[in-house]
Amino acid sequence: MKFGKEFKKQMVPEWTEAYMDYNGLKRILREVRGYKQTKHPATHNKALQKKPTLDKTFSGLHKEASNLPSKGDIEDQVIDVNTLQHDGSGQIYKTKFLRQSEEGGEVEVMFFRKLDEELNKVCNFYKDKVEALMHEPAVLNKQMDAFIALRVKVENPDLNGSSLKRCYLSNVSSKMLPTSTTCSRDRNPGRDYVGLIPEVDTNDDHQQEESTAGPEVNSVSTAGCGCDHREEVNKDDYKEDPLKILEHVKINNTLESPISTIKGVFKDSKEEDLSFNKEELRKVEERLRRVFVEFYHKLRLLKHYSFMNLAAFSKIMKKYEKITSRRAARLYMRIVDNSYLGNSDEVTCLLESVETTFIKNFSKSNRREGMKLLRPKAKRERHRVTFFSGFFLGWSIALLVAIVLRIEAHNLMDKEKGTQYMENIFPLYTLFAYIVLHMLMYAANIYFWRRYQVNYPFIFGFKRGTELGYREVFLLSTGLAVLASAGFLANLQLDTDSSTRDYKTITELVPLVLVIFVLLITFCPLNILYRSSRFFFIKCIFRCICAPLYPVTLPDFFLADQLTSQVPAFRCFELYICYYSLGEYSRRQSKCLSHGVYNTFYFIVAVIPYWLRFLQCIRRLCEDKDAMHVYNGLKYFSTIVAVIIRTAFELKKGMTWMVLALVSSSVAALINTYWDIVIDWGLLRRQSKNKYLRDKLVVSHKSVYFAAMVLNIVLRFAWMQLVLEFRLRSLHKMTIITIFSCLEIIRRGIWSFFRLENEHLNNVGKYRAFKSVPLPFSYYETDDDDDDDDDDDDKND
């Protein structure tokens, strides 16, 4: 693979604009090449014959640049790079091209001007990100102090006084020091977990910055940087019990459960006192582990960002030399290597320190297990997934053809039995059709998200290395299609065969068996069929059901929006309960519509998805205090009113209900359409450079966005047909309902792509590639401490 494609592929999607514009520099070099070919074709062709292949590894790039001749001969010098100091913005690099007077020199001047702009941009971005992270190690050290003290306290409840202190010191020593030490060793435990200030080599261009984290931060060195990792202090510094730190600590209540949310409503503070039990210790350890993993991930992204940009600068300079036959790479790469991007090693030192701390405290000194958590392996594409996907797709198509041929062979649609099938059996199997179609749309979305580099795993918050690709989702959808089609064909075969008509009651149980089987697989605790993804889905479903009692995250409201397009599927579940619990299946007469309870739940089931989404808006309004959540909630409330009126018209008929249904449905459709296009997709911006769209677009073809808007409007108003009841004589009513329900699922799939695209572009605009993880502990000062501080101030006065 060429370096340009590999460079683009390896970019952090949210930082795309912060990377070096490799393709822009290549375009300038093409102009230089065109000039060289026009003016000096023989020399240029000879230079091209010496051009090596482009598939060299990154490790050899700097080596090739270093082997070039030095700039000792003044006649060979092509560029002069000046480093300018600017207050607040660090160093600015400016290159002067010394051969500007030659023909075509203006293009090369433009190349180096662009190169300097990219170097300054990359260095400033990298420096800002590193400096933004430097306060986090101090916070993590304090969290580790409290965690170690809590673990000792919980695991040794019978100890107290000096014995508890000795156990604490022994625990810290055994957990933190690289070699086994005794409790009497003079170390300051609990203050060097992460390595707060990595020591870097200083030179004329770079000076070590002063830390702003306080006295204890400045006294710490970092392991792996050629310095002692721990600062020795006297034992006399421990005038108090180290475990007294727990008196200044409370548990942060993140309101991530219904119980904690209810407690938070009746409490002014979101903090809880320590209870010193094993369950509390387990939760604290789990949350602190997530904090360390996320912090390590941030460091890795920064390290990768630095590495890729250094490789890009080396590669583009090598291309410049090949095209122009001028030797400038060595001098410029020396400047790049001495810049903050190439010379700063804070990230490397912090990576080593975090690895050491994490392995000793969260994986029982098992490096292999610790590194699995810190560096989860990327999911490999397996050939068997592709094979079985195609296999199941072929089977599902064959089964559908067999079903159609079976129906045509027995003329089921022309008999009274056919009417019974469409009213009783067909709705039971449409549940699987809705689910399979939704899964296929999701698989298609994943394919296009990956193609256009929309970072959907980060947006959804999937655990790294466990997210499903489009092949896996397509495999599950085709597998479910085969299962449902085989069940339907078996039902037809048993029912139409004269030798099996005595088992008619048993044949009616086939759909129920399929539903139970799918539910068992979904909730199966065994590590089969993508357990982590199944549990993530179940967790999101549960959080949607408990909408006001959980903080609303993007996966929660995204899934709730998907459920609003699955109202027919919810009604199918209601039909299952009525059809089998009342014994209707044994008589093949569905009289559910005549039951008052069924009709009541027919209303409730249709409203539930929109009601859950409405409650999520209320919860977000309470947390964010943003008026947009009020308008969003009113949108779902108008939809609830429209659904209720439309359902009443469907059950009761009448001209009055029809008019009310048309008006309410039209108003809801207009509001939802506007919200979809303007708010969720961010389109129809008047001041945008892309007329009637938005400034940034993932898909290069603008017609795709206009087609999506038109299609969304058409499909939004398609459900009006259920009110107007335009019927085709060749189609049964149930068939028409199924078709329009499938169209709504397709519309939701289209909406999902552009909704996540807009979210991704918002992250790109804010360079948001990290997720914030709440800390388990919060520190506070007691009244005694405040009094002591006041006494000290009085003495000083």
Automatic annotation (TrEMBL):
It comes from the Eukaryota. It is found in: Cell membrane. It is a multi-pass membrane protein. Residues 204-223 are annotated as: Disordered. It holds the Pfam family SPX. GO terms for biological process: cellular response to phosphate starvation; phosphate ion transport. The chain crosses the membrane at residues 385-405, 425-448, 468-489, 509-529, 536-553, 596-612, 633-649, 655-683, 704-724. Residues 1-334 form the SPX domain. Residues 593-787 form the EXS domain. GO terms for cellular component: plasma membrane; trans-Golgi network. Keywords: Cell membrane, Membrane, Phosphate transport, Transmembrane, Transmembrane helix, Transport. One of its GO terms (molecular function) is inositol hexakisphosphate binding. May transport inorganic phosphate (Pi). This is Phosphate transporter PHO1 homolog 10-like.
